[in-house]
Write a structure and sequence with these properties.
Helix content is 36%, strand content 18%. It is of the alpha/beta class.
Length: 191
């Protein structure tokens, strides 16, 4: 099973998710790819991701994750907790600190959902922090230095022991992501 985890105020209809889905259908038609729409609040979002992961484990499936931004933060916790491998795309490192600037009304342009980002959401996010990467061989990190949303140096420091593809320039969406999917699939050892 490949679980694609989108980022903050994003969705399974984002460009990266659609590119990933199309590539996987073309190259690995037998692969089960799951890309859920996550609830806005971290605790129910993680509960959904855990349920999907635990179901895959119960069915004897190998765990593979692709996480973008906040999805990379969630994927790190899932791999540390359940095993498997993950590809992280411009991952958030301490999103609970970043959320301070976004407290209050929010709008997800993909879903049309209006909601409130609350201080309790910061606390919920902090529960899923992975300050030390225990199994660096389980991670491939894709970073671009001109990420306008996250400071790539935080991810560079946190995941320094992991396999990494660091590119100058780019942006938060990771320019040229589709060209990296062969590398992604090889790292995840997709069938």
């Amino acid at each position: 099973m490949l679980l694609y985890i989108h980022g903050f105020n994003s969705s399974p209809d984002s460009d990266k998710a659609r590119i990933t889905r199309a590539y996987m259908q073309q190259q690995f038609s037998q692969l089960r790819m799951v890309a859920p729409q996550l609830p806005a609040a971290p605790k129910p979002a993680m509960a959904l991701l855990q349920a999907i992961t635990e179901q895959a484990l119960a069915e004897g499936e190998k765990l593979c994750f692709i996480g973008s931004s906040l999805g990379g933060y969630f994927a790190s916790w899932l791999v540390q907790e359940y095993g498997g491998k993950a590809v992280l795309i411009n991952p958030a490192v301490k999103p609970y600190e970043l959320f301070a600037a976004y407290l209050g009304p929010q709008f997800n342009p993909y879903t049309g959902e209006h909601y409130q980002l609350l201080p309790e959401h910061q606390q919920q996010l902090q529960q899923y922090d992975t300050p030390v990467i225990l199994n660096p061989e389980r991670f491939l990190v894709l970073l671009q230095t001109a990420d306008e949303v996250l400071d790539y140096r935080q991810a560079l420091a946190k995941y320094h022991c992991c396999e990494m593809l660091l590119e100058a320039g780019g942006n938060h969406s990771f320019v040229g992501y589709g060209d990296k999917l062969d590398t992604v699939s090889r790292f995840l050892c997709l069938p």
